[in-house]
Amino acid sequence: MDKGDLQLERLVKRYGNQVVVNEVSFHIQHGEFFSMLGPSGSGKTTTLMMIAGFAGVDGGRIAFGGRDITRLTPQQRQLGMVFQNYALFPHLSVSDNVAFPLRVRRLGQAEIDRKVAWALETVQLSEFAGRLPRQLSGGQQQRVALARAIVFQPQLILMDEPLGALDKNLRYHMQVELKEIQKALGMTVVYVTHDQEEAMNMSDRIAIMNNGRIEQIGKPHEVYQTPGSVFAAEFLGEANLLRGSVLDDSRLVHAYGEALAQSGAHCLFVRPERMRLLNDVAPGEHEVALEGHVQRVSFLGNIVRYAVALKGDATVTVDVQNDAAARHHSEGDGVSVVWHIADGRILNDG
Amino acid sequence: MDSMSRSATAFRRLSLLDRPGLMIIPLLTLLVLVFLLPIVWFLAQAISESPLSFAEQIRSVFLSPDVIHVIWTTNYISVVVTLVVLLIAFPIAYVMAFSRRLFFTLIIISVIVPYFTSVVVRTYSWMVILGRNGILNQLLLDWGIIDTPLELMYNRLGVIIGIVYVLLPYLVLTLYSAMKGIDHNLMRAAYSMGASGSYTFRRVFLPLTAPGIISGCLIVFILSVGFFITPALMGGSRDVMIAMLIQREIELNLNWPMAAMLSIVLLTVTLILYAIYYRYTNLERMLGK
């Protein structure tokens, strides 16, 4: 195992009778940006707190760089941490906040000054060194928290929804900035978020968590394109899930096999942007087409979103790029919903 | 601005009662009539009764060795009381701020119930405990720890124990609210950066509690300076505090001008301390609690 690798083995956390983290295992490589993504109560923050040493471990083990750290105190783990509400010390200036971990380590003043200057420069806050945290905007406070976490160059940085309190535009900007710093410094990051776009934008790999378990781990496009479960499919963006009598269609059975139609145990998953709408043109080879009529048209700027009612009481969402070639359909129009067979995926509907 | 909101603004300007300054006029009138005027009137009457000029009266107060002794005693007792209260209240508030509901309820009840009990009752309870034949002396004698009863009352020790007990809840509650306002993640952040428990306490927790400590100690000191019942019941002849002296001048010596001068001294000290207190509570708000 590499020096900076983090390994979780069947990690368990209970509160009373409730199991909040249920046998979570993963292996993060040095330099990787790894996100835990899930709704609130999925156990992602508790898992992070166990890695940090703030929550006791009820089962399993945590190893970092090959060393078992399950029973170590937070101080002994030497990890960087960025909290959701930044947790900046309100009585200390920006530079004193950033210098805190260095003063704890009793470094010399000259070295402290040098490292603080480097960290503040990295997050582009050099001219704010003398300010108090409350004199900064949310985005600037966030960057101070980041500077404070990277200043002692820890092997691993944990982040608990660090961008959760920022507004949407700033959040995207900070994602890009954070990712660039992470790549430049080669940091290993474990990142917790409930925002799927954020996770996909920054992560090398994503773990989707639900009810204390990991549903799926993979690269962002893998998890998005080929979700392993209905939960993963629905949590990462829009998903069409066809169930019930719609599936009793010879064309679908021909494309996906007999198993699909059998007794509601499966459903068919297709992303809205992988579907097309046609009126009179015949579908191509390796494509499936189902007839229906346009129920609603939503203009969303870059895309036009159609809700199409299919025969058999199902509705699908179809996203069409709003480019010059796009053909407009009106409410009530009869259309065919078409997709490439490979873009459909059979999921266990449990 | 559209016409709707413009007319709303105009209406707000017309309606005088919307102004917060005007709303407090009835309260202000009441305070001036029943509180401020009587004090000023009493002080003015008392001072003008004396054949001496105001400056001479002030000089007579501050040149009297008896008065100076009383002022010194009052300050000494108040400083000791404040320090002892801080020493006891800090750990109690700390435990309260970090304990779970059941334990918290137990502590808050044992802090609040005495707070709402009459000071006279509480002082007499201490007299039962601390007296020459009181519970404490009896126990110590029975266990053979001491041979003769300890002098726990009718001296400075008794006064300090009594006042400390009465004023404890004020500081506990002030400190509790200051500590409760501190984000627990700040301590976690310090630990994650490698800081030990004691380092975190000194560099993070204590500085953030400081405004609460200062304002709470000022409140305790202010209340202690003006204390009357406890020193009167539990003190000895050498533990006369300023409030007792004022009462004595009025009831025994019938020297109202002297009582008035002493009242002015007490009032001035109290107002100055309140001004400092006000500054620190503002500071607390500035820290963004």
By secondary-structure content and strand pairing, the structural class of chain B works out as: mainly alpha
CATH class label of the largest domain in chain A: Alpha Beta
Q: C-alpha Rg of chain A, in Å?
A: 24 Å
Kindly state the percentage of residues in helix of chain B.
Answer: over 70%
The CATH superfamily of the largest domain in chain B bears the name MetI-like
The number of domains of chain A is 2
Along the chain, the helix and strand elements of chain A come as: EEEHEEHEHHHEHEHEEHHEHEEEEEEE
Count of β-strands of chain A: 18
Keywords:
heterodimer, A: 350 residues, alpha+beta, Rossmann fold, OB fold (Dihydrolipoamide Acetyltransferase, E2P), 2 domains, 6-stranded mixed β-sheet, 5-stranded antiparallel β-sheet, 10 helices, 18 strands, 27% helix, B: 289 residues, mainly alpha, MetI-like fold, 14 helices, 80% helix
Structure description:
The complex is a heterodimer of chains A (about 350) and B (about 290). Helix content of chain A is about 25%, strand content about 30%. Chain A has about 350 residues and is an alpha+beta fold. Chain A folds into two domains: about 5-235, P-loop containing nucleotide triphosphate hydrolases (Rossmann fold); about 240-350, Nucleic acid-binding proteins (OB fold (Dihydrolipoamide Acetyltransferase, E2P), Beta Barrel), CATH 2.40.50.140. The model of chain A has no long low-confidence stretch (mean pLDDT about 90). With about 290 residues, chain B is mostly helical. Helix content of chain B is about 80%, strand content about 0%. Chain B has helices at about 5-15, 20-25, 25-50, 55-65, 65-100, 100-115, 120-130, 135-140, 155-180, 185-190, 195-225, 230-235, 240-250, 255-285. In chain B, helix 5 (about 65-100) crosses helix 11 (about 195-225), helix 7 crosses helix 9 (about 155-180) and helix 10 (about 185-190) packs antiparallel against helix 11 (about 195-225). Chain B is globular and about 70 Å long. The chains are: A alpha+beta (about 350), B mainly alpha (about 290). The interface between A and B is medium-sized, with 26 and 19 residues.
